[in-house]
Predict the 3D structure of the following.
Amino acid sequence: MSEMKSCESCGMQLDSAEAFGTNADNSKNEEYCIHCYKDGSFTANCSMEEMIEINLKYLEEWNKEQGTNFTKEEAREQLREFLPTLKRWKCTCTEECASGYNPNCTCTSSECHCTEKPN
């Protein structure tokens, strides 16, 4: 059995071809979901903290599907740990660093702002 893929931006399970985002040539993008990636670019230019808040809008639905009962605070903390493991939010330690809070980032670039906790 193959491992379930997840969106490398929001973490949504990519469980069907319809869930995949699209590249500029309209082919399926197997790394990102249709909600995060369309026509070869991200649908929202957001920070990781903003993505967390977007995901929290679906917490009730998630809890129902997964049989969990996370509070918003619990889910927010889980997402702060999980999202930095996804491709979009990993610090690449190059000129353009991920634009989200990542307390595990070890980048030494003066351009990196991963470890600056949002207000």
User: Anything to note?
Assistant: The two ends are 43 Å apart (CA to CA). The beta strands are 5-6, 13-14, 20-22, 28-33, 37-38, 41-42. The chain has two domains: 1-45, 46-119. The chain has a mean pLDDT of 84.
